[in-house]
Design a protein that fits this description.
Layout lengths: L2 H29 L4 H18 L37 E5 L2 E6 L14 H18 L5 E9 L9 E11 L2 E10 L8 E8 L3 H14 L2
Antiparallel strand pairs: 1-2, 2-4, 3-6, 4-5, 5-6
Bound molecules: Palmitoyl-CoA.
Catalytic activity: (5Z,8Z,11Z,14Z)-eicosatetraenoyl-CoA + H2O = (5Z,8Z,11Z,14Z)-eicosatetraenoate + CoA + H(+); hexadecanoyl-CoA + H2O = hexadecanoate + CoA + H(+); decanoyl-CoA + H2O = decanoate + CoA + H(+); octanoyl-CoA + H2O = octanoate + CoA + H(+)
Keywords: Apoptosis, Cell membrane, Cell projection, Cytoplasm, Fatty acid metabolism, Hydrolase, Lipid metabolism, Membrane, Transit peptide
Protein name: Acyl-coenzyme A thioesterase THEM4
Length: 216
């Protein structure tokens, strides 16, 4: 490993550590019933830490120094990113064209009481469908996502997601996916069909050209 690679690996570990701490913070902030005074003290302390993190920030058109866009490392992706306070995070692996994802949703993801918000399910499915699409060798952006909610998705329960590509027609790729519980993988709770469209060179250049040139 070069010194640069070692430095990047350490930074990714630190980002993951911070992400873990933030996710625990979000979960406790969502569920706490401590006295009101303690809430106000916590808010003041968190603002102090926030100010320290804000000392040096990147702008909208700069990637995180820990990311590797072409290698598929996005530390702050809101679904899979180990550094994201918003991400469950969903852990995805793709084997023989089938993407498999695992996560447990905390109470911060609640929609109907004790169950996941429907938008969160759609977000998880969009991401895992995207991984299956990329793995098929036809990367593209989502242009349509049809989601069917068959049964509520329980919180604090290990979930199992799967996705695979069904069809490739020119620039258009269709993929399907499901969310189930790990305990009962044969019973889909949410299913989705997504349409992804591969970008033409001009579109890639227009939307992401600056980022791709900056990726080390
Ligand atoms: C090596 C690295 C490893 C990495 C390993 C990590 C993996 C990492 C995975 C990331 C996974 C991320 C997963 C989240 C993915 C997002 O969240 S993407 C964000 C949300 N999506 C967007 O913002 C896209 C917005 N849409 C657009 O910008 C434009 O629609 C696009 C995509 C540039 C395409 O524009 P366009 O070229 O003008 O499209 P157009 O010619 O109208 O249509 C092209 C084709 O699509 C069809 N189409 C268009 N819209 C629709 C529609 N709504 N319904 C059905 N068909 C449609 C058209 O009918 C047409 O079909 P054909 O006639 O060619 O058969």
């Amino acid at each position: 490993m070069t010194a640069d690679e070692t430095g990047r690996a350490h930074r990714r570990e630190a980002i993951t550590e911070l992400g873990d701490a933030l996710r625990t913070l979000v979960e406790h902030a969502t569920t706490t019933e401590v006295p009101t005074g303690d809430l106000l003290r916590a808010a003041a302390e968190i603002r102090e830490v926030t100010a320290r993190l804000g000392d040096r920030v990147r702008d909208r058109s700069t990637l995180s120094s820990a990311d590797d866009l072409l290698g598929g490392v996005r530390m702050f992706n809101p679904v899979t990113g180990a550094g994201s306070a918003l991400a469950p995070p969903l852990q995805i692996e793709v084997v023989a064209g089938v993407a498999t994802g695992r996560c447990t949703l905390g109470r911060a993801f609640e929609g109907p009481p004790t169950f996941a918000h429907g938008g969160v399910s759609a977000m998880l499915l969009d991401q895992i469908l995207g991984h299956a699409v990329v793995a098929s060798g036809n990367p593209g952006m989502t242009v349509r996502l049809d989601t069917t909610y068959r049964a509520p998705v329980p919180l604090l329960t290990p979930l199992l997601l799967t996705a695979q590509v069904q069809d490739v027609a020119g620039r258009r790729v269709t993929a399907t996916g499901t969310i189930a519980t790990e305990a009962d993988p044969g019973t889909p709770l949410v299913t989705a069909t997504g349409t992804f469209v591969g970008l033409r060179a001009e579109q890639t250049h227009r939307l992401f050209g600056k980022l791709l040139r900056a990726d080390p």
